[in-house]
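Open question from group meeting: does this chain pack into something compact, or does most of it stay loose? Before anyone orders reagents, we agreed to write out a predicted structure and look at it together. Recording both the input and the output here so the notebook holds the full record.
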Amino acid sequence: MKNHRTMALVAVLSLIFSCNSLAGTKIVIQAIEDGQNEADSTMLIQGNKLRMSYFDKSDSSNSDIIFNHQSQSMMAIDTEEKSYMVFEAAHLASVKAKMDAVKQQMEAQLAKMPAEQQKMMREMMAGKLGIGKPKEKPTKKIVKTDNTGSAAGFDCQYVEVYSNDVKKRELCITPWSKLTNGSEVKTAMQGMMSFFEKVMDSVGQFAQDDNMPFSEINELGGFPIIYKEYKNGKITEQSKLKSIIDESISEELFNPPKGYKKQSLNDMM
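Structure tokens returned:
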């Protein structure tokens, strides 16, 4: 009888702890922008959820995004305004419809302008909201190199990313199979990027954006533990994996912060 009571107590305690926190993955990346402004970003991954937190030491600002793969939703948290906004896959169609309505209104206004002024405005707004002739999607190329590196105890191999034959970045890749909890990290990262592409596409902007971090994640075969961004042949941003560990993560960290106000997407349109 005593053994049964002990086993029941252990079971109850295990259930209590599992409700509050579960094993997950914590990734810390340290970045240096323009050679001096240090910033830290943290990824918390647990099952179908991912939280990305970015802290810029130069101005003490925070940026937080929470992605839920299962519900196909993304939450953007504004720590300064103490508010948050949720983007859901189910709502993207209505967002696109509203953006199309805005486009029609702008087209109607443009039609009233003189030909020269109309041409100038269309050139200025090319590719935005579908106004004017859209910019062509840049041709992206990923080139493997023989160069290798390491960070946080992981070896990696460099690839170079080109956009319209212009070098945009260097990434040093560790295969998913060699990364701590690589399968979990891969699912979360690729799921988030796929969703983010849908969000940007709904407002007609993604096709013109070749500077988005992790935009090549589906093509790399691993995680970029070293990241170097280039502009005009010079490095403008650098980041390196600082640590990746197993960690019990509270479910509260994937929920809206207490006391924060939920904003509607309609408030911005």
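Observations to bring back to the group:
Residues 23-94+130-268 form a domain with the outer membrane lipoprotein receptor (LolB), chain A fold (CATH 2.50.20.10).
The helical segments are 2-20, 92-111, 115-124, 182-202, 217-220.
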